[in-house]
């Protein structure tokens, strides 16, 4: 597995011959010139996960990519997109994709909840080689190997992120969703996740716009 982090929640996953891009949002950068994608997966409709300005050009540059999103985002983006509900399983090349979760984390009781599809990538024997939860703290029943963990968000306390990391207990955790925090402050979040995460989990901060092998 190779991962490239384009900032915030946008991650390119290269697994078993497939190139899958998650959440190209307006806090992310460097994904604009990507071609040869097999799929674009969007967790939910917020612009920091689906940039309305740059997404159309990305889709046009990747005519062979499957387009998948949560049901509400699919309705907004049009019929070219396929809705992914919790429990849906489909393939992108040799990679099995499982939709799970279903709901965005609570921002405030007065803010309506929206759809949020979390995704598992893997195969029949290991269906959760990687999990991208979007803006949720959903704990799947499958054993997760690599977790893209939200590090900071308006809806998230650091204690919740730590408890989520403990609950999922992946082999490797890579922080995402840090675009809302100044660069000089991100070490506070990473340090707590490292110090207070479960034993046996490696927190690996990915360099932005650089491909890294995770094995």
Q: Which second-level CATH architecture applies? A: 4-Layer Sandwich
Please outline the major beta sheet: 7 strands, mixed
Shape: globular
Order of strands in the sheet with the most strands?
6-5-4-3-2-1-14
Mean pLDDT: 97
* Number of E-state strands: 14
Radius of gyration: 16 Å
- Low-pLDDT residue intervals, each spanning 5 or more residues: none
**What is the fold named in CATH at topology level?**
Metallo-beta-lactamase, Chain A
Fraction of residues in β-strands: 25-35%
How many domain modules?
1
Please count the helical segments.
4
Alpha-beta content class: alpha/beta
Helix content: 10-25%
The helix/strand order is: EEEEHEHEEEEEEHEHEE
CATH superfamily: Ribonuclease Z/Hydroxyacylglutathione hydrolase-like
Summarize this, please?
GO terms for molecular function: hydrolase activity. This is MBL fold metallo-hydrolase. By secondary structure, the protein is an alpha/beta fold.
Description:
The protein is α/β, with parallel strands linked by helices and 215 residues long. The protein has a single domain (2-206), classed as Ribonuclease Z/Hydroxyacylglutathione hydrolase-like (Metallo-beta-lactamase, Chain A). The protein has helices at 55-61, 71-77, 158-168, 186-196; strands at residues 2-5, 11-15, 18-22, 39-42, 66-69, 82-83, 89-92, 95-103, 115-122, 130-132, 146-150, 172-176, 202-203, 211-213. The strands form two sheets. It has a seven-stranded mixed beta sheet, with helices on one face. The longest helix is centred in the last third of the chain and has 11 residues, at 158-168.
């Amino acid at each position: 597995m190779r991962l490239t982090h384009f900032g915030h929640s946008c991650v390119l996953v290269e697994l078993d011959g497939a190139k899958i891009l998650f959440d190209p949002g307006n806090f992310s950068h460097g994904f604009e010139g990507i071609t040869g994608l097999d799929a674009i997966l969007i967790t939910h409709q917020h612009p920091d996960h689906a940039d309305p300005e740059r997404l159309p050009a990305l889709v046009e540059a990747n005519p062979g990519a499957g387009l998948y999103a949560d049901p509400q985002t699919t309705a907004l983006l049009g019929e070219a997109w396929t809705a992914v509900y919790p429990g849906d399983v489909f393939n992108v090349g040799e990679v099995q994709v499982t939709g799970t979760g279903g709901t965005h984390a609570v921002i405030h009781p007065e803010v309506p909840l929206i759809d949020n599809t979390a995704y598992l990538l893997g195969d029949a024997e290991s269906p959760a080689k990687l999990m991208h939860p979007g803006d949720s703290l959903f704990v799947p029943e499958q054993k997760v190997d690599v977790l893209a963990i939200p590090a900071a968000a308006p809806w998230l306390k650091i204690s919740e992120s730590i408890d989520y990391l403990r609950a999922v207990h992946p082999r490797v955790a890579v922080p995402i969703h840090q675009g809302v925090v100044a660069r000089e402050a991100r070490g506070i979040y990473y340090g707590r996740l490292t110090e207070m995460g479960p034993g046996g989990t490696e927190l690996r901060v990915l360099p932005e716009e650089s491909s890294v092998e995770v094995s």
